[in-house]
UniProtKB/TrEMBL annotation:
Residues 10-140, 159-223 form the Exoribonuclease phosphorolytic domain. Phosphate binds at residues 86, 124-126. InterPro entries: ExoRNase_PH_dom1, ExoRNase_PH_dom2, ExoRNase_PH_dom2_sf, PNPase/RNase_PH_dom_sf, Ribosomal_Su5_D2-typ_SF, RNase_PH, RNase_PH_bac-type, RNase_PH_CS. Phosphorolytic 3'-5' exoribonuclease that plays an important role in tRNA 3'-end maturation. Removes nucleotide residues following the 3'-CCA terminus of tRNAs; can also add nucleotides to the ends of RNA molecules by using nucleoside diphosphates as substrates, but this may not be physiologically important. Probably plays a role in initiation of 16S rRNA degradation (leading to ribosome degradation) during starvation. The lineage of its organism: Bacteria, Pseudomonadati, Pseudomonadota, Alphaproteobacteria, Hyphomicrobiales. Keywords: Nucleotidyltransferase, RNA-binding, rRNA processing, Transferase, tRNA processing, tRNA-binding. It comes from Roseibium aquae. GO terms for biological process: rRNA 3'-end processing; rRNA catabolic process; tRNA processing. This is Ribonuclease PH. It is an enzyme of class 2 (transferase). The gene is rph. Belongs to the RNase PH family. Gene3D superfamilies: GHMP Kinase, N-terminal domain (3.30.230.70). It catalyses: tRNA(n+1) + phosphate = tRNA(n) + a ribonucleoside 5'-diphosphate. GO terms for molecular function: 3'-5'-RNA exonuclease activity; tRNA binding; tRNA nucleotidyltransferase activity.
Length: 237
């Protein structure tokens, strides 16, 4: 039995609440159980210098955790003067994931910056961030469409992410912190709504995992992400 009493293929309770920021062009408060992430998408009428004059846009992401998002207060990275390697790796993952489903030429010569701020962490912050970031990004693009700033389809598909792992020899879906901290294997899957693979991160923390176990985690991820995409679709109705 999992600590949360969930079945091996069961997601935590997931909610996607839109338009939670007064100022951002797109926003979403995403909750995967006790992991809560605020995602905002901001339109900036500029692009990185290396993209200027190319008639296409850019989507980028930043990620951070509030000092008391975890059990003990963490020092703000701004006060330390630099971002941790973990923070940089996660925000690059979020940016790559979003760009995988964006037609940058249709977006035009603008940049959308998606900020993912972890309000409360209980495992799976990066996967929750990607899932909520898509909703915020979509609403930002629709804000642009309402003002005739885009005319062609910009989003090519949904994108969502979920963690899987092997805990006490059993492949399970959507690890919370209690499982994540003890898992023999921890993996993150980022897939499109059509099932295309964008990125997989998997690490054996102790005993190496087999190809069969990987296939089982992949099947769990596909099932979980299909449910997350359905929730995204319901949230934007």
């Amino acid at each position: 039995m999992r600590p949360s009493k969930r079945a091996a293929n069961e997601l935590r309770a997931v909610t996607l609440e839109r338009s939670v920021s007064k100022h951002a062009e797109g926003s979403c408060l995403v909750k995967f159980g006790d992991t809560h992430v605020m995602c905002t998408a901001s339109l900036e009428e500029r692009v990185p210098p290396w993209l200027r004059g190319q008639q296409r846009g850019w989507v980028t992401a930043e990620y951070g955790m509030l000092p008391r998002a975890t059990g003990e207060r963490m020092r703000r990275e701004a006060s330390a003067g630099k971002q941790s390697g973990r923070t940089q790796e996660i925000q690059r993952l979020i940016g790559r994931s979003l760009r995988a489903v964006v037609d940058l030429e249709a977006l035009g010569e603008v940049q959308i910056s998606v900020d993912c701020d972890v309000l409360q962490a209980d495992g799976g912050t990066r996967t929750a961030a990607i899932t909520g970031a898509w909703v915020a990004l979509r609403d930002c693009i629709e804000w642009m469409r309402a003002r005739d700033m885009v005319t062609k389809p910009v989003l090519k598909d949904h994108i969502a992410a979920v963690s899987c792992g092997i805990v006490e020899g059993t492949p399970v879906l959507d690890l919370d912190y209690a499982e994540d901290s003890t898992a023999e294997t921890d993996a993150n899957f980022v897939l499109t709504g059509a099932g295309g693979i964008v990125e997989i991160q998997g690490t054996a923390e102790g005993v190496p995992f087999s190809e069969e176990e990987f296939s089982q985690m992949m099947a769990l991820a596909k099932s979980g992400i299909a449910k997350l995409v359905d929730l995204q679709k319901m949230s934007i109705l």
